[in-house]
Design a protein that fits this description.
Blueprint (H helix, E strand, L loop, with lengths): L1 H5 L5 H21 L1 H7 L6 H21 L5 H24 L11 E3 L6 E3 H20 L6 H19 L4 H17 L4 H24 L8 H12 L5 H16 L23 H34 L3 H25 L18 H62 L1 H7 L1
Antiparallel strand pairs: 1-2
Helix pairs in contact: 2-4, 2-12, 4-14, 5-6, 5-7, 6-7, 6-8, 6-13, 7-8, 8-13, 11-12, 12-13, 12-14, 13-14
Organism: Flavobacterium petrolei
Subcellular location: Membrane
Family: Belongs to the SEDS family. FtsW subfamily.
């Protein structure tokens, strides 16, 4: 174990907080999977779901380990080509994803032969953030021209969002917000950002009008997320109200110290208790202290991301850490806000804690790239330290040689004086 830990490179703080979140996830997932066990197996045995979650986490950490070994600038080179592949996957998901059973099936595709469902928008967001970071790092070298940036940056961004929007408005809004944050940090001109935001609002309104006017023209879930927003802002009863009410009952039942591990009651009534609403189960079982503890871990992870971004030796590295790390924390905050009814139901999971396979793996892939950036910082710092040691050793060697030469010269001088007869007379 000690040897394995020593082989882990990069920011040890990020490694630690990720491991703590993953380890903590075993208990709430094991507890909250009981309703799934009753529905799927009929006996309420959640051990199989725990083993499955442990396997997902184990594969996720293997992904982090493998990816963090890859120099992060390699992802800069492949981001543009990967974006085209992502468009194909998103288009396929939009067309074929509806055949998969489930309420949110249009977001997912099923990987052939292995039967694993995969949410392509998660991969798309990660590739898009790297693509935006790549553009901003290149654009820093010359003044940004809005017309050229529309072609090189914003058209790819809006094409990606166009593929995601019909099935998943919340993910689209999250990605667009993070892209705006990224270009702001990358010092993209504010007046251009204002134009982009205005264009995005107009485009969204136009899309909604088209979807409402021609509901059967293309697959979309416009009515679903419009109803969610409408239910959130009004008192109309709906399915989302049932979920929120059960989540609030769970949170209120937890009080300060919680009911105890595995003693949640609302997990048997709350849909998606092991994924979208797992934070409510955490608070019910571990109380306000447990909920604040989870929040603190995410904030500490955010703090490490900020430090890693500040220390990165290149602009691309800084933007990659921000682009991949901040959305992870923002998604966690959205998930918690939904549980306490600060936001409408969005379907966003709690990173590294909620059950699921592909979502955990994509999160771990992003973490691997972030740790790769911090590993490069450590390598540069170690090279500078080694160079300083070599320089110091060389200087010491030169100093010893100079001292030796001086001693030899002084020795010759004394011997010469001793041989000189006049020197002997003067000494008398």
């Amino acid at each position: 174990m000690k040897q394995l830990i020593n082989n882990l490179k990069g920011d040890k703080g990020i490694w630690s907080f990720v491991a703590l979140l993953a380890l903590f996830s075993f208990m709430p997932v094991f507890s909250a999977s009981s309703n799934l066990a009753y529905i799927g197996q009929g006996n309420g045995n959640t051990l199989g779901y725990l083993v499955k979650h442990i396997m997902h986490i184990g594969i996720g950490f293997a992904i982090i380990f493998m990816v963090h070994k890859v120099p992060y600038h390699y992802f800069k080179a492949v981001s543009k080509g990967a974006l085209y592949i992502v468009w194909v996957l998103l288009a396929y998901t939009l067309i074929k994803g509806t055949v998969i059973a489930g309420a949110n099936a249009s977001r997912w595709i099923q990987v052939p032969f292995i039967g694993v469902t995969f949410q392509t928008s998660t991969l798309a967001s990660m590739v898009l953030f790297i693509f935006v970071a790549r553009y901003l790092s290149k654009a820093r070298e010359v003044p940004i021209d809005f017309k050229s940036s529309v072609l090189e940056l914003w058209i790819p961004v809006f094409v990606t969002l166009l593929f995601i929007l019909p099935a998943n408005f919340s993910t689209t809004a999250l990605i667009f917000s993070m892209v705006l944050m990224l270009v702001f940090i990358g010092k993209y001109p504010l007046r251009y950002i204002g134009i982009v935001v205005g264009s995005g609002i107009v485009f969204l309104a136009f899309f909604i009008l088209i979807a409402k006017a021609f509901p059967d023209a293309f697959p979309n879930r416009v009515d679903t997320w419009i109803n969610r927003i409408d239910n959130f802002t009004s008192d109309k009863p709906g399915e989302d109200d049932y979920q929120i009410e059960k989540a609030k009952i769970a949170i209120a039942s937890g009080k300060i110290y919680g009911l105890g591990p595995g003693k949640s009651i609302q997990k048997n009534f709350l849909p998606q208790s092991s994924s979208d609403f797992i934070f409510a189960i955490i608070v019910e079982e571990y109380g306000l202290i447990g909920g604040l503890g989870v929040l603190a871990l995410y904030l500490l992870l955010l703090f490490r991301f900020i430090i890693a971004s500040h220390k990165a030796n290149s602009l691309f590295g800084k933007l990659v850490v921000v682009g991949l790390g901040f959305p992870m924390i923002f998604q966690a905050m959205v998930n918690m806000a939904v549980a306490v009814e600060l936001l409408p139901v969005t379907g966003q999971t709690l990173p590294l804690i909620s059950s699921g396979g592909s979502s955990i793996w994509m999160t771990c892939f992003a973490l691997g790239i972030i740790i790769s950036v911090t590993k490069k910082e450590e390598e540069i710092a170690q090279e500078m330290k080694d160079a300083a040691k070599r320089e110091e050793a060389l200087q010491n060697l030169i100093d010893r040689e100079l001292e030796g030469d001086a001693a030899v010269a002084e020795g010759y001088s004394i011997e010469d004086k001793a041989k000189n007869p006049m020197h002997a007379v003067l000494n008398k």
